[in-house]
Amino acid sequence: MKRRDLLKSASVLAAAPFLSAWSNKFSDVGNNQHTSIKQISRFSDCRDWFFERRYGMFVHWGLYAIPAWHEQHQWRARVERNKYVKLAEHWNPKKFNPEMWLDLMEEAGMKYITITTKHHDGFCLWDTKQTTFNTMNTPYKKDVIGMMADACHKRGIPLCLYYSIADWNHPNYPNDGRHHELPPQPQDSPDWEKYMDFLKKQVRELCTNYGEIHGFWWDMNVPLYKDKSVNTMIRQLQTKAIINNRGFDDGDFGTPERDYDNNANEVKGFERITEACQSVGMESWGYKKDEDYYTDRHLIASIDKYLTRDANYLLNVGPTSEGIIPPQSAEILKRIGTWKKSVDESFSGVEFNQGFTEVAGVLTTNRDNTLYVHLNKLPVGNGIKLKPITVAPQKVTLLNTGKKVDVSVNLCPSDHATQQPYLRLRNLPVDEMCNSVMVVKLEFDRPLNEITKTENSNNDLELEK
């Protein structure tokens, strides 16, 4: 099996339990039976910060930023361990300033941060007592996680910690040549119980030495080992911590990654809490010096697609070996932040309902008598017919610009068979906004369950607003 196919399969397996069935969640809006998606259950405890913050920064950073090729450099480039570990002799990110990262995060409209503490290479970004392969035993000699934690606490920003279960450095981890593992190493002494003891001690360090932690983001449980005691320990030590589903039990939330999982991309709602993740770079999550980047449109549409379905979103950047978030990555985040701030009201305090219109590529959220129409897929023309809506709003605004949108309710030739007029959004600035996602705010003078009524329709009626 190819690696990309393997990654896709793993992503589907990770996300599958959390996807809702299309047919069970929605009623026939054409028959005016529309109901909202049942909101995903909240925790009703201090972990509910997760539902308020919704959009966060993901950071992959470690020794792999030095060769600047991929965060899995050691594995993908077939670098022998004894050569890879020498990168630690060059780890000295003198320009790392967590305040600058958080400044960018906030400018980008992000509300929390998740950072790698240990990736698959086993190098630790904190002052761990369990291995010498850490940032303190390098020319830098500083505790990166400690610095980030202090900055987050000072600014009231939730901090979540990523931790890889697979470990290409630890002699007790059973590297066996499976996916995301090295082949067996002659100098190792594979012992899962000893490795789990090491892992639990590291998790305890992270959950006791750095103040309040808001989340734990497991990755790469290659053996699919189950041990609920690990997450139980995290919850006992950090009551606000929300835990993902890639660890030793199902955790609190699912983690569809990039665009690997078509079900997660297209399903109208999720069965449980979900946080999608994506990177600005097309090849690597860590810093790649000659990276290719996704378009703003692709990333914005991806973020919009998840936020409109009651899910969270992490967007990743990979800092350089000096500790700087690359300028191109930073500019992407800023441009996305401009978009998100302009349309933020369509994500906050709303109901998540895709049953208001049957138009492909259009997503909706709503609050009271206001409907937010997200043109998630780029329209093919400058007008959108919002079937089966038959009522003209009192006010229509393009949130991206704050400008009025032209609307009408009249019979189109394509609807001659039913002789039914529908609401049309007209003269949209599609070409000018082709690299963004337009969000249109429709304010009605009646409850939204009445905007699809068809009785007493006047085929000649045209209401211009």
- Biggest sheet layout: 7 strands, parallel
Annotation field: number of helices: 12
Major beta sheet, strand line-up: 5-4-3-2-1-7-6
Radius of gyration: 24 Å
Description:
The chain is α/β, with parallel strands linked by helices. It has two domains: 3-346, TIM Barrel (Alpha-Beta Barrel), CATH 3.20.20.80; 356-450, Immunoglobulin-like. The protein is 24% helix and 16% strand. A seven-stranded parallel beta sheet has the order 5-4-3-2-1-7-6. It starts with a helix and ends in a 22-residue tail after the last strand. Mean pLDDT is 90; it is low at 1-35 and 461-465.
What is this structure's SSE topology?
Layout: H1 3-15, H2 22-25, H3 49-53, E1 55-59, H4 73-76, H5 81-84, H6 98-107, E2 112-118, H7 144-155, E3 159-164, H8 192-208, E4 215-219, H9 228-237, E5 242-243, H10 262-266, E6 275-279, H11 296-307, E7 312-317, H12 327-343, E8 351-352, E9 362-367, E10 370-375, E11 384-385, E12 395-398, E13 403-404, E14 406-410, E15 422-426, E16 439-443
Helix pairs in contact: 6-12, 8-9
What's this model, at a glance?
This protein has helices spanning 3-15, 22-25, 49-53, 73-76, 81-84, 98-107, 144-155, 192-208, 228-237, 262-266, 296-307, 327-343, and strands at 55-59, 112-118, 159-164, 215-219, 242-243, 275-279, 312-317, 351-352, 362-367, 370-375, 384-385, 395-398, 403-404, 406-410, 422-426, 439-443.
